[in-house]
């Protein structure tokens, strides 16, 4: 069964610290992997999209990595800010149809 | 650009009532979709459309109808609301369904009593 699992479920860190969020997937065949940020009460916003051949992709202080062999991805946030408080969702696109496979997200709280 | 616009923001229904959630985008996207988001779960696809006049079912289509008469609009109809349909609903659009990032509306919080 196609699945996306994220860890941890929630995370609290101090402002200015770095953190890494994990995503494991069992989706096959694989087209691309995406990370979205969702602020409370808002729709998700795209951070990165990575295809099979891409190992790393950055968007400002956000850096996503992909290991297609082990089917793992991570999202690293550098020098966290209060505005980084949000849920971060990992999404995998199978190669075969239009239905994306969504993880349940990691809720990140940045404390001053 | 307004992007993806959803209305209403909040709605309370009684069991058995019907209603339509509105979604419009001004980016000339061919692909539009409806998702529901429930606590502790990933977003689940309800219905999607790859162009005007074309719609298809997603993962959880029961109890919902859609139509796509124009490129811009993609309304979602609840035929006879049930408490199990209490959720947050998101409309999303993109140029293509598989390789482009999705743009989301701000969501509709629906409660069915």
Short description:
The complex is a heterodimer of chains A (112) and B (113). By secondary structure, chain A is mainly beta.
**How would you sum up the global shape of chain A?**
globular
Low-confidence stretches of chain B: none
What separation lies between the terminal Cα atoms of chain A?
Answer: 41 Å
Binned, the helix content of chain B reads: under 10%
Chain pair with largest interface:
A-B, 22 and 25 residues
| Approximate shape of chain B | globular
What is the straight-line distance between the termini of chain B? 36 Å
Structural class by SSE content of chain A: mainly beta
Radius of gyration of chain B in whole Å, from Cα? 13 Å
In DSSP terms (H or I, runs of 4 or more residues), the helix count of chain B works out at 0
**Total number of β-strand segments of chain A?**
11
Helix share bin of chain A: under 10%
The total count of strands of chain B amounts to 11
Strand content of chain A: over 45%
Order of helices and strands of chain B: EEEEEEEEEEE
The average pLDDT of chain A is 94
Helices and strands of chain B: which structural class?
A: mainly beta
How many strands, which pairing sense, and closed or not: the largest β-sheet of chain B? 7 strands, mixed
Number of contiguous helices of chain A = 0
